[in-house]
Amino acid sequence: SLFRYLDMISRKLDHHERTAEEQRLLWMEKEEKRQREQTRRKLNLLRKFEEEWKTKEMLLLKETVEDVNREAGIEEQLHRSKGKSHKQVENLLEKVLNFY
Fold first, then answer.
1. d(CA 21, CA 10)
2. Rounded distance between C-alpha atoms, residue 60 and residue 68, angstroms
3. What gap in Å lies between CA 9 and CA 7, rounded to an integer?
């Protein structure tokens, strides 16, 4: 009877150990899943941030190119108008010199 009692206690302990091990494994699986989800969310946020950054960078580059082109156009117009003025002054001087 004592052996039966010890055997019953042993089986209950085995059962509790198995249950505790199963619960530990379930907890580990849940924790791993939680960490994977957290990593996935972080990666998604990182991708979104990178896309937004690239878009902003491209807009800035586009604006810079437009500014450079606009300034180049202004400089070209100034250069042309200076050339015309210079030509007009030369022609006038030539007329004055020819007159005298």
1. 16
2. 12
3. 5
Question: Strand, coil or helix: what is 71?
Answer: helix
Please state the domain count of the chain.
1
Tens of pLDDT along 66-91?
988 888 888 888 777 777 777 777 88
Length of the chain: 100
**In terms of residue numbers, what domain contains 95?**
1-100
Task: Please give the Cα distance from 40 to 19 (Å, whole number).
Answer: 31
Q: Which two tokens mark 22? A: 């199963």
Let me know the angle formed at the C-alpha of 37 by 32 and 43, rounded to the nearest 5 degrees: 125
pLDDT digits (tens, 9 = 90+) for 37-54: 999 999 999 999 999 999
Interatomic CA distance for residues 3 and 84, integer angstroms: 120
C-alpha to C-alpha distance for 69 and 61, rounded to whole angstroms: 12
What does pTM read for this prediction? 0.52
